[in-house]
Design a protein that fits this description.
The chain is mainly alpha-helical. It has one domain (13-288). It has helices at residues 13-34, 51-75, 81-106, 108-117, 119-150, 166-187, 193-217, 226-231, 237-252, 254-279; strands spanning 39-40, 49-50, 160-162, 222-224. The strands form two sheets. The chain has a two-stranded antiparallel ribbon. The chain has a two-stranded antiparallel sheet with strand order 3-4. Strand 1 (39-40) and strand 2 form a beta hairpin. The radius of gyration is 20 Å and the shape is globular. It starts with 12 loop residues before the first helix and ends in a 24-residue tail after the last helix. 38% of the residues are buried.
Length: 303
């Protein structure tokens, strides 16, 4: 039986370029993470920003590109299956491979210290870190593939995600690295008890957080769509007050705001899931309209 092949003749140039820019930022994040825990003069106000921090910021720039490509495609009325597939492939790099590699390199120095102090413990710890990063990457790819299969075209009714969105999962990992590299040294002197306690807590908890973020991506735990539920359309006046408060926190301390925001968003789905299980209550019916929503060319790209 002869199967006719369909050749792609036309593509939307500008949204596709922005989508590819997302992958370039992810690739840059991998490159920065590979350089290790050294510093470079990237900005005048931060003369010694570490490569790990830059890798985290590259992931966030990838999120910006991921938002813009969808907006441009819808404004130009050029959404397409090609754009959706390209977006998922780029997301797999920026929100799947890059955060996993960043965790591996970020914890590499601590594993080297463990080798000197406790050689017997360092080997299993290194394998566990590798396993957590590998599981995270695999879960991100599975989630994006699941999205391609289950995606709904009508974005206006999307009120929830099923599972933690891949950009949010990457944001959890990247924001923790940025907090430890870019903010912690400025609020606590190196060598003090507060600095050592915070650093050790972050470094030892990060593999478990990475593993949890990966698994949350492939669950059916419901996460709210922030834009559609709280921003888009006519909303209560209280939403404006909350929005101004969030903007004020971001302006006051960006690194702390993104760390609390992404980690809080990831924890929110778990808390709500336990709440509904314990109380027996059911979520609002609007959540059942579209069971899966992932960031991409065909949908609203923001959390």
């Amino acid at each position: 039986m002869h199967v006719r092949k369909h050749r792609l003749r036309y593509v939307s140039i500008l949204p596709s370029l922005v989508t590819i820019l997302n992958a370039i930022f992810g690739f840059a994040a991998i490159g920065f993470a590979a350089k290790g825990a050294t510093s470079e003069k990237f900005f005048f106000h931060k003369p010694e920003l570490t490569y790990f921090a830059m890798a985290g910021y590259m992931i966030f720039l990838g999120m910006v590109a991921d938002v813009l490509d969808g907006r441009l495609a819808r404004l130009s009325k050029s959404t397409s299956s090609f754009g959706g597939q390209l977006d998922s492939l780029c997301d797999a790099i920026t929100f799947g491979v890059a955060p996993a590699f960043l965790v591996l390199k970020f914890l590499e120095g601590r594993l080297a210290e463990l080798t000197e102090i406790k050689p017997a413990f360092a080997g299993p710890a290194g394998k566990f870190v590798w396993l957590c990063a590998a599981v995270y990457m695999a879960c991100a790819i599975i989630r994006l593939a699941r999205f391609n299969v289950e995606n709904e075209e009508d974005e206006s009714a999307h009120m929830n995600f099923w599972g933690l969105p891949s950009p949010a999962a990457a944001g959890v990992v990247a924001s923790i690295v940025i907090f430890q590299q870019d903010l912690l040294p400025s609020i606590a002197d190196t060598g003090t008890f507060l600095y050592r306690f915070a650093e050790n807590t972050i470094l030892y908890a990060l593999p478990f957080i990475t593993l949890a973020a990966g698994l949350l991506m492939i669950t059916r735990i419901r996460y709210p769509h922030i834009v559609n539920q709280f921003i888009r359309g006519n909303k209560p006046f209280s939403n404006l007050i909350w929005g101004l408060g969030v903007v004020a926190i971001i302006i006051w301390n960006t690194q702390l705001a993104i760390a609390l925001g992404f980690c809080g968003f990831a924890a929110l789905g778990i808390v709500r899931w336990f709440y509904y299980k314990l109380t027996g209550k059911k979520p609002r019916l609007e959540a059942e309209q579209h069971p899966l929503f992932e960031t991409g060319r065909h949908d609203d790209d923001t959390v």
